[in-house]
Write a structure and sequence with these properties.
The protein has a four-stranded antiparallel β-sheet, covered by helices on one side. Strands 2-7-4-5 form a four-stranded antiparallel β-sheet. With about 230 residues, the protein is of the alpha+beta class. The longest helix is centred in the middle third of the chain and has 27 residues. It has two domains: about 150 residues, Jelly Rolls, CATH 2.60.120.10; about 70 residues, Arc Repressor Mutant, subunit A (Orthogonal Bundle), CATH 1.10.10. The protein is elongated, with a radius of gyration of 19 Å. Helix 1 packs across helix 2 and helix 4 packs across helix 5. About 45% of the residues lie in helices and about 20% in strands.
Length: about 230
């Protein structure tokens, strides 16, 4: 008998799948996909899984995640942000574990499905396999978009990206994302000047996205901030 929180998350996962990535599937098929999964609640700042872990496949029920890679010297690059209703781990269904880490930027809930069950459905139902093929292509486009964003993003978008990355790479206590950086360091990192960065921070404070103090920038609404990141569709 599934736990009550698993049952609740499964129902919510089914609703999100039907409204989003699996909208082309019948309700019965979506319910079959979600059968036998498990709920995963994670606090802000916690790494959900790393590149050494076995592959997982699920949907984000609540919160905000970032998918990133890092080098041996500790540098990190974010390749994707995962928001409510989005799938996580679809390419790994075919290619195996990906060389990435997944971290919660806010308190989050994910519903991870039974991999063997999902793979079996994909092997026997072309409509299910097509969903995963499309999702894998979307993830490729995400990577291309991140590369393009490094060139085409505005200073505001580059500042937001860097603040989110800094705060996520060094999570503080109390669940509040905090980037420990001063204005000059931030300007150097995003390829701008201090005066322009100061103006951007003023704008972010005015819209209640951040709170600043010397050498410290607290992110008050990471979900809303992440929605401003550069996109080719804008």
């Amino acid at each position: 008998m599934p736990r009550l929180d698993d049952q609740h998350s499964q129902r919510e996962a089914v609703a999100l799948l039907r409204d989003g990535p699996c909208a082309s599937l019948s309700r019965e098929m979506v319910e079959r996909l979600a059968t036998g999964g498990n709920t995963f609640n994670v606090a802000a700042g916690v790494t959900i899984y790393s590149e050494a872990d076995a592959e997982r496949f699920g949907i984000l029920v609540q919160g905000l995640l970032r998918v990133y890679m890092h080098t041996s010297d500790g540098r990190q690059v974010t390749v994707r942000y995962v928001r409510r209703g989005e799938l996580l781990g679809a390419p790994a269904l075919v290619g195996g574990p990906a060389p990435v880490f997944v971290q919660a930027l806010t308190d989050s809930t994910a519903y991870f499905m039974d991999l063997a069950h999902v793979r079996d459905l994909a092997r026997h139902h072309a409509a299910v396999a097509w969903i995963f093929a499309k999702e894998s292509v979307d993830r490729l486009y995400d990577v291309l978009e991140e590369l393009a964003g490094n060139t085409f993003a505005t200073v505001r978008q580059r500042v937001i990206r860097h603040l989110l990355d800094l705060a996520a790479s060094r999570p503080g206590s109390g669940g509040l994302l905090t980037a420990r950086v001063n204005q000059q360091e931030l300007a150097n990192s995003v390829g701008s000047v201090r005066e322009v960065v100061a103006r951007v921070l003023h704008e972010l404070r005015a819209t209640s996205l951040v709170r600043t103090s010397p050498g410290r920038i607290e992110i008050l609404d990471p979900v809303r901030m992440s929605s401003e990141l550069w996109s080719r569709l804008e």
